[in-house]
## 1
Amino acid sequence: MQAQKALIKWHGDKALWYQLEGWLHDLWYLSEHWHRHMDAEGKRKFLWMRTNEYPWGVTPPKVRVSKASPPDMLSVSSGEASDAELNPVEEEDELGDLCDKTGGDLLGSEAGDSDNESSMASISFKKENKAMGVAVSVHTLLAAVSSIQQPGEVSGLRPTSPIIMTDSLPLGPANVPSIPPLSHQAQRKKRREDLGKACGCWSCYTNKIDAVRHCDSWFEGRVITLIAEYLFICEGPDAKAHHATPLLLQNAHDILDHPEKEDSNRLILAWLHKEIGLIHEMPEKCYWLIPAHVLGHWTLVLIDWDHQHVHFMDSMNERLGVEEDKMRVQEEVWVLMQLIDDGFLKDAWTWVSEQRPQCQTNSYDCGAFVLADMASYMATGMPSQMSQVHMRAWCHEIIGFVDSLPPLVYQKMIINPNAPIIYIDDD
C-alpha cells in the first residue's frame, strides 16, 4: 500500500509521520462506515481497507493516540506534580478506562459501600487530573505540528485528529450560530443580480461582465452594447449619435457567406428589418454607430447621414491583415445600407478609412477603444483622443458603469393560443 510506503519513507520526520498516520486513521473510519452500508456481505473486499493496512491494527472503540513518539521539543510536562514528561499512550489508556467505568456507573451500578465510593472518588480525581494533562499535551502537540508545516502546504488539508474530536467543545443547537433566512423577495433579487445586468432593452449575463473585470480580458458584444446603451441614456436627448448591436453586421456577414441558405437568410432578413425599423422610429441623429467584429478584433463603423460618409475606425490600423478586414466590413455595410434604403446608391457614399495613428499597443483593449469612440461621438460628435495610457482608468470607469446598472428582471410571457400563425415570406 502506498500509504505504508510513505510511512516508512518519512519515518524520520516525526511531524509529517504524525500527519500521515492521522490521515490513515480518518481513511479507516471512512472505509468502515461505507463498508457497513454498501457492502455488508463483503463481496467487494478490494474496495475497503484491510486490518493490516491500518497502522494501529484492529482498534477497540476507545481511540488511542499515535504510537509514534512526538518530537522532543513538543513534549509537555505535567505541571506542579512532576517535571518528568507525560506518556500520552498510558494516560490515554487510563482515560479510556475511566470513561468506561464512568459509563458503567451511569447505567445503573448500585453496588459498593462507602469505602469503595471514597476510593473510587480518589481514583477518579487523580485520573481526571491526568486527563487534563493529556488534553493540554495533545493540544500543544497539534498546535506545534501545524506550526512547522512547509510553506507550500495548505493547512486545510491537515487531517483531523480523533483527540480534537473528543476534546473539542460540543456543538449543540444552542452553540451553532443561526443565519436568518432570506425572504422570498430578497432571494429573487439576489438571483437576478447573480444572473446579469440590464439597461434599456439590452442585457448581459454575469459571466460576460465578470470577464471585463480582468485587465487583460475580452469585451464580448453584449457587454459593448449594454455599455453603449448606458452612455446613450446618460446623454439623454442631447446625444449626437445612435448605436446598434454588432449583430447587424454579423448577420449581413452570414448572408454574404451563405447565399444558398434561403430559409435561414429569410429569417435573418426579417430580423434585420425589425432592427432597422427600431432605428427609424428614434429621433433623427447625425451619426449611427455600429461595432464591427473582424477576426479576433473589434472595430467601429460610423455612418454620417448628413455628409453620406462611412468612417471605419480601427485602434490597430497597422496590424497584419487590416486591409482584408476593412474590405470585409465595407461589404457588410453596403448590404446593410441596401436594406435601410431601397434607393441606396453606393457611388453616392464615401468610405473613409482610419486616419489616426495606431493607438492600441496590446491585444485586448480593442473593445475599450471602441467604447471610447462611441462615448465621444455621443457626447461631442468627435472621435476620442484616448491612447493606450488612458485605457486602464477607462476600463475601471466602464466597470463602474456596469455595477451601477439594475439586475435582470424576470418577465412572464403569456402566449395566446388563439393568435394567428405568422409566416415570414418574401412577399
## 2
Amino acid sequence: MYPNQNWHCDWKGDIVGYTIGNDMSSRSIEGENPLFPSKSVRQKLFHRSLLRFNKHHTRPTSLSVECSIYRNGDEVFQASTSTGDMARSCSEINQWLHESNFVPDLTTVLKVLQ
C-alpha cells in the first residue's frame, strides 16, 4: 500500500486542485493490509480524502503525505512520501494525459508515490 497524490484537472488540461488518497481497487492489498476494510465495511466508506489544496499551492512539487495506524496502542503501519520523490511532475503527467485522450472536466488523476 502506498498513499496517492491525486490532482484534479479540467478538460482544457489545467490542474485545478490537489488531494491525497488511497487506491482501494487493488486486490493485492486485501491481505494483511491494516488500511483495507472488510468488504461489508468497504461498501459504506468513501475512500478519497476530502482535503483539497488550492491549485496555486506555493510548492506542489513538495507536498508530503504521512500515515500512521495504531491498534490497541501499537503502531501497525507507518508510511510517508512526497511529491518530490516523483520521477515526473504532476504537470508533465497531466500534459501527457491530455495529449492523447479526451479528459472530462474534473477528472482525478491518481499518482502512486513510492
